[in-house]
Amino acid sequence: MMSLVERLGHGPEERLLIVNCDDIGSSHAANLACLEAIKEGVATSATLMVPCPWAREAVEMFQGLDVGVHLTLTAEYPGYRWRSLTGAWSLHDDEGYLPTNTRHVLRHADPEDVRRECRAQIQQALHWGVDVTHIDSHMGSNQIDARFFEIYLEMAIEFSLPLRMVGPAIETRLGFPCRAPAQARGVVFPDEFVSEWGRPTDDLLAHALPALEPGVAEINLHPVYDGPELRGYDTTQAQIRIDDHACAMSARTAELIAGQRLRPISFRPLRDLQRGLI
Questions:
Q1: Of 34, 68, 83, 109, which has the maximum CB count within 10 A?
Q2: Environment class of residue 261 by beta-carbon count within 10 Å: exposed (0-12), middle (13-18) or buried (19+)?
Q3: Residues 6 or more apart in contact with residue 251 via CB below 8 angstroms
Q4: What gap in Å lies between CA 146 and CA 102, rounded to an integer?
Q5: In the CATH hierarchy, which fold is given to the domain comprising 4-72+131-146+160-274?
Q6: Contacts of 168 (CB under 8 A, 6+ apart)
Q7: H-type helices in the chain, by residue range?
Q8: How far is CA 195 from CA 61, 170, 192, 228, 271, in A?
Q9: CB of 51 within 8 A of CB of 84?
Q10: pTM above the 0.90 mark?
Q11: Sign of the C-alpha dihedral computed for residues 69, 64, 215 and 213 taken in this order
Q12: Of 269, 218, 277, which is closest to residue 10 (Cα–Cα)?
């Protein structure tokens, strides 16, 4: 069977790299930093948090760029919150917002409410004119429980979109099959996903990128400009986002990618493959 890189028209030994900026729409500072990371840095795509207050601005700013939907079932900042599009009771906490953590989602969210909300977020992005290239999951809420992973997979099939997939090692830890069911249903996804929240991204990349096997890998960043806006809503982990912006803009990061002969791509070729266009 042909590998993903071969199906995309590359040689079997090629290593392709997607660098995705998560969380556009979450703030003005995130929009600015992610846009710079794509236009002038190493990033190749981004994903939109549709329920967030700055989502509409992101749609305008990222016109013509490769943007997916960052399916959002949580609102993690204590003083900065957002609600679901559908208003389903099971998706909200006692304060009336999406919950701050995935544990609450797994305990309380009704799968049918999750299904309607995920569909509504994708449909809203399409209605705004976003040429959606893929889907992924904010804080992994759609990926760490078999019930919600099935919905995640349904959305990829319904809208003919590739998705972010956990790597083989994480799949083993989750304890339920992810990759084989997606592949069996014709969903396209990268071979590997490199992410470790809290570890400095430049350190992670320095160790992970040289070890990548032939295939398609995705790494994700969370770039945000430093300043009062970020410091006002993220009171505990702002530095991670500031450092991710610096990493995306760093010449050293670009040199690492080039030196490893990693070919940058976005999710668009994967979407074209899934839709039978290549």
A1: 34
A2: exposed
A3: none
A4: 14
A5: TIM Barrel (3.20.20)
A6: 179, 192
A7: 4-7, 28-39, 55-61, 102-108, 111-127, 146-158, 168-174, 179-184, 201-208, 228-233, 238-249, 251-259, 268-274
A8: 26, 11, 10, 27, 22
A9: yes
A10: yes
A11: negative
A12: 269
Q: Give residue limits of the domains in the chain.
A: 4-72+131-146+160-274
5's tokens? 């890189």
- Tens of pLDDT along the chain (278 residues)? 899 999 999 999 999 999 999 999 999 999 999 999 999 999 999 999 999 999 999 999 999 999 999 999 999 999 999 999 999 999 999 999 999 999 999 999 999 999 999 999 999 999 999 999 999 999 999 999 999 999 999 999 999 999 999 999 899 999 999 999 999 999 999 999 999 999 999 999 999 999 999 999 999 999 999 999 999 999 999 999 999 999 999 999 999 999 999 999 999 999 999 999 98
Q: How far is CA 215 from CA 12, 17, 21, 103, in A?
A: 8, 9, 20, 33
| Chain centroid, CA 184 distance in Å | 22
Positive/negative CA dihedral, 251, 253, 137, 65: positive
Q: How many residues comprise the chain?
A: 278
SS3 content of the chain, % helix, strand, coil (to 5): 45, 15, 40
Q: What is the Cα–Cα distance from 105 to 110, expressed in whole angstroms?
A: 9
